[in-house]
Amino acid sequence: MFGWLDNLVRYIVENIFNISMDTRLGGSVHFFIYDTVKILILLSFMIFIISYVRSYFPAERTKKILERFSGITANIMASLLGIVTPFCSCSSVPLFIGFVEAEVSLGVTFSFLITSPIVNEAAFAILLASFGWKIATIYVITGVVVGVIGGIIIDKLHMEKYVEEYVYQMKVGDVDIVKMSQNERVNFAKDNVIEIVKKVWLFLLIGIGLGALIHGWAPQEMLAKYAGPNNPFAVLVAVILGVPLYSNALGTIPIAEALINKGVGIGTALAFMMAVTAMSMPEMILLRKVIKPKLIATFVTITGIGIVLVGYLFNWLL
Asked: Which of 126, 145, 221, 292 has the fewest CB atoms within 10 Å around its CB?
């Protein structure tokens, strides 16, 4: 798909920068330029498409849709809506309160909260660009599965008593769903592309820069030995290391790409990425405003185990 870009960047590195592609520096510079352009192109395209779809699913409509379902169907719908619904750690508290007020079950709410930060259009675009349709599709499916199963387990544990009392007493009221014309939806998608790129470009460049350093300078033999698919503890360590960090998928996927190119297991690298995006400390701190520590610990444990299993699955399949 991007063979033309690879050839163009090679030409720039060798003939304009006068750096041989056979050197570590040449490989790193090529990685940085190629990945930056490739990711920005796919990122903008995917954000536009998903934002257009997202215009049909504001938070109020998402809440109303989930009210109609029950049982495992509700968990599946919550996870699927989590893919196309805007979510960040700053929105976790109002979304949680809105779902509780609408009497959406706790398990269904967590299916949404688990899937939404893991699976998003930006991460899908970069995975598609870096690893192809197969890995990108499995990534989406496994993210949804983790959300569905995690929500079902939380629902079966009946942990409603670990939600702060004031949440049940709040009444935010209904919000009118604004109808948009086709031109407004297109403009919404354009504005979303600009807004998201402005927010994430620094994370993106830092991640690609670190990926370029790893690509050119990290010792391949050592990484393959200690973090390769044959190390049974690599996935577990990657998830544990990812929890206290704060980044997003855009910052971690270029690093994952470079690590995989150096022999690190695909599942190990993606498990690290998913742990950072789904269980970051800022999100846990914000969720503490509405749920008690035991429920947070349960959420982190269930999600962490799910991500570890997904990591082993990727290493086994690929």
From this structure: 221
- Give the integer Cα–Cα distance in Å for 233 and 267: 12
How far is it, in rounded angstroms, from Cα 83 to Cα 185? 18
Cα dihedral 101/102/104/110 (nearest 10): -50
Task: Please state which of the ranges 1-5, 95-99, 114-118, 224-228 shows the lowest mean pLDDT.
Answer: 224-228
| Residue ranges of domains in the chain | 3-317
In tens, the pLDDT along 279-302 reads 777 677 777 888 899 998 998 888
Provide the H-helix boundaries in 157-233.
165-169, 182-217, 220-227
Running DSSP on this structure, what letter comes out for residue 163?
B
Cβ-proximal residues to 186 (8 Å cutoff; 6+ apart), any chain:
52
Give the burial string for 80-99 (b: 16+ CB within 10 Å, else e): bbbbbbbbebeebbebbbbb
Is the CB of residue 35 less than 8 Å from the CB of residue 208?
yes
DSSP string, 231-257: -TTHHHHHHHHHTT----HHHHHHHHH
Q: Is residue 235 within 8 Å of 274, Cβ to Cβ?
A: no
> In whole angstroms, what is the distance from residue 135 CA to residue 140 CA?
9
Q: Judge whether 243 and 200 are in contact, CB under 8 Å.
A: no
pTM of the model: 0.69
Task: Kindly provide the residue ranges of all beta strands, DSSP E only, lying in 1-155, ordered along the sequence.
Answer: none
- CB-facing half-sphere around the CA of 38: CA atoms within 13 A: 25
